[in-house]
Design brief:
The protein is mainly beta and 364 residues long. The protein has one domain: Methylamine Dehydrogenase, Chain H, CATH 2.130.10.10. Helices cover 1% and strands 41% of the residues. The chain is built from 1 helix and 28 strands. The strands form 7 sheets. Strands 19, 20, 21, 22 and 23 form a 5-stranded antiparallel sheet that branches. A hairpin with a 7-residue loop joins strand 24 and strand 25. The longest helix has 4 residues. The two termini are 12 Å apart.
Length: 364
């Protein structure tokens, strides 16, 4: 755990990146937009190796998608001379979007993963400056049968295992969860118990529309998952899933985030349903579990109490790594809210931004 000396908040929007700095997580100053008029679907914050590197997946409607990095907290940005993420010619595919930039842990120095659209996994060994396609997952016989979610076919989640650099789980919309234990040479679907109401077989081997997945703070085998209609937990690293919708007012939503230090604690922002993508009861509320999904409690102190229509997307809910933990979310209204005490109290950090697509936070 880390003492709070300062905090960084990276907010990716439909029209650029905004960076927030705070000395105490209560007062914030924002700069931006960086990458003006670029849609920022993915941000990674890598604090390994004694420096803080920001990684950004920027998508220009004119120039196309690219990955940039900064080692000076956004004062300057670097782009490789050749595309960092590029499909080999043999695939016949071209990059449409970088959905995820996920630094691995201390178990894999220099390794950064990128999840893309079309759904594929790329791996970097130089801190995100260049990437290579993970061929075995692209060549998996089930991949050609994956569908596309409402927002496209994206590999949007990469979860590493701090105990073993060869263990990795990814999530695809709409393909489901896949897992490797040998560094990516072999992959198996890990969807037992996950429902797909939109398919003839409601519990298929693959094809689920997973929205987001997060790893528990202290038990690497425990995962939380927000599905397209369903909230789940796995206690065996994704091999089997159990519904934990419990007393939630709805089981549809996009994001899920785990507390950085406390086992059994996770956060959601429920929406009515896939056919009514609005906050439940038109109230702005985060729901938190402290018992691994057995029960959920609404958190709304400091959040708006009038009718609210801001939808939180899959990568727009996150925690920082401080103690006490901060929790943050942004919505399609262009608002960003934060809590410096694990969700007990909230405040509006900034507003009137373009659609918020992703939020990442870190102590400094």
């Amino acid at each position: 755990m880390s003492d709070v000396r300062g905090a960084l908040l990276a907010v990716g929007t439909q029209k650029g990146l905004f960076l927030g700095r705070s000395p105490d997580r209560r007062t914030w100053e924002f700069s931006g937009p960086h990458f003006q008029m670029n849609a920022i679907y993915s941000v990674g914050i890598d604090r390994r190796g004694g420096r803080t590197r920001l990684l950004v997946g920027a998508d220009s409607s004119h120039w196309g998608p690219s990955v940039w990095w900064s080692d000076d907290l956004g004062a300057s940005w670097q782009e490789p001379s050749k595309p960092a993420v590029r499909f080999p010619e043999r695939t016949g595919a071209s990059l449409e979007r970088v959905w995820q930039l996920q630094p691995a842990g201390a178990e894999a120095p220099g390794v950064v993963y990128a999840g893309t659209e079309p759904a594929a996994l790329f791996r970097s060994t130089d801190g995100g400056e260049s990437f290579s396609l993970v061929d075995a997952l692209w060549d998996h016989p089930q991949r050609e049968h994956w569908g596309a979610g409402f927002g496209g076919q994206g590999m949007h989640t990469v979860v590493t295992d701090p105990r073993d650099p060869d263990v990795l789980a990814v999530a695809v919309s709409s393909g489901g969860v896949y897992r490797t234990t040998d560094g990516g040479h072999a992959w198996e679907p890990s969807n037992t118990g996950l429902k797909a109401d939109f398919l003839p077989d409601r519990f298929p081997e693959y094809g689920q529309c997973v929205h987001k997945m997060a790893r528990d703070a202290t038990d690497p085998d425990r995962l939380y998952l927000q599905n397209h209609g369903g909230v789940y937990r796995s206690d065996d690293a994704g091999r089997n899933w159990t519904s934990i919708s419990g007393n939630l007012p709805a089981d549809f939503g996009f994001g899920v985030a785990a507390h950085p230090h406390t086992s059994g604690t996770a956060y959601l922002f429920p929406l009515d349903a896939d056919y009514a993508r609005l906050p439940v009861d038109r109230r702005c509320r985060i729901f938190r579990t402290t018992d691994a999904g057995e029960t959920w409690q609404p958190l709304e102190t400091g959040l708006p109490h009038e009718n609210h229509y801001g939808v939180v997307l899959r990568d727009a809910l996150c925690t920082d790594d401080a103690d006490p933990a901060g929790v943050y979310f942004g919505n399609r209204n262009g608002e960003v809210y934060g809590s410096p005490d694990g969700g007990e109290h909230w405040s509006l950090l900034t507003s009137h931004l373009p659609d918020v697509l992703c939020v990442r936070a870190s102590s400094l």
